[in-house]
Specification:
With 196 residues, the protein is an alpha/beta fold. It has helices at 26-39, 92-109, 126-137, 154-163, 178-188; strands at residues 15-20, 44-54, 57-65, 71-76, 84-85, 88-90, 112-118, 142-147, 166-169. It has a domain at 15-47 and 94-188: P-loop containing nucleotide triphosphate hydrolases (Rossmann fold), CATH 3.40.50. A nine-stranded mixed β-sheet has the order 5-6-4-3-2-7-8-1-9, sandwiched between helices. A hairpin with a 2-residue loop joins strand 2 and strand 3. The longest helix is centred in the middle third of the chain and has 18 residues, at 92-109.
C-alpha cells in the first residue's frame, strides 16, 4: 500500500494497526511514532513489548508502560506456570497489572493510545481483549501492532471486521516511511497537545 488515503479522518479518530512478519520492525515503527508524538507535545500512553535477550538468545518479552515507565514480564522461558506459547510461558499477572493498566490509563489521560502488540500471548487475557475493545471504542486515536498469526484468531477477526481500522502491512520497502505517514494522519486529524 503506497499511501494511506483510504482512511477517512474527518469525523473519527484514526485507528491504525501495523502488521507484518516477525522481525520486520513493528515495534520499531511504533517507537518512532511515539518519538514524533512526544517531540510535538502530544501526551502518549499505552504499552510496548520488547525482546529480552541473554548472550544473543531470546529468553522472553518485556512489557513497558509508555506513560508511567513501569515494566513487567509478558513471557519467559524461565516461567514455570502460565499459558504456553512455543518455548515461552505467558505471565498474565504482569500483562494485566502493567500492560492492561497502561492502556486503560492512556484511554483516560493520553492524546494517543499505543498497543504493541495484539498477539497470541496477549490474547490469553480476557482483560486485555476487553481493553483493546475499549481503546477502539474510545474517541482517542489508537496506533497498534497485530502479530501476523493473531490476524486469524476469532477475536482479531471480529475487531477488524467491526471497527474497520486501517491495517498496514510493514515490509522492507515501506517500514521507514510508515511511521511518518501514520504521524501525518494524526496531524491531519488536528490532534492538539493536551493542556497539561
Amino acid at each position: 500500500m503506497g499511501g494511506l488515503r483510504a482512511l477517512s479522518i474527518s469525523r473519527n479518530s484514526p485507528k491504525v494497526f501495523i502488521t507484518g512478519r516477525p522481525g520486520i520492525g513493528k515495534t520499531t515503527a511504533i517507537l518512532k511514532i511515539v518519538e514524533l508524538c512526544k517531540r510535538n507535545g502530544l501526551k502518549i500512553g499505552g504499552m510496548v513489548t520488547k525482546e529480552i535477550r541473554e548472550r544473543g538468545v531470546r529468553t522472553g518479552f518485556q512489557i513497558i508502560d509508555l506513560m508511567g515507565g513501569r515494566r513487567g514480564l509478558l513471557a519467559s522461558i524461565y516461567a514455570s506456570k502460565g499459558p504456553r506459547v512455543g518455548k515461552y510461558r505467558v505471565i498474565l499477572e504482569d500483562l494485566e497489572s502493567v500492560g492492561v493498566e497502561a492502556i486503560e490509563q492512556a484511554i483516560a489521560e493520553a492524546d494517543v493510545v499505543f498497543i504493541d502488540e495484539i498477539g497470541p500471548m496477549e490474547l490469553f487475557s480476557q482483560k486485555f481483549q476487553e481493553t483493546v475493545v475499549r481503546a477502539l471504542e474510545s474517541p482517542k486515536p489508537l496506533i497498534g501492532t497485530v502479530h501476523i498469526r493473531a490476524r486469524a484468531f476469532p477475536f482479531t477477526r471480529k475487531i477488524l471486521e467491526k471497527y474497520k481500522p486501517l491495517v498496514i502491512e510493514l515490509s522492507l520497502s515501506n517500514r521507514n516511511r510508515v511511521p511518518f505517514q501514520i504521524y501525518e494522519l494524526l496531524r491531519k486529524y488536528q490532534l492538539k497537545p493536551s493542556s497539561e
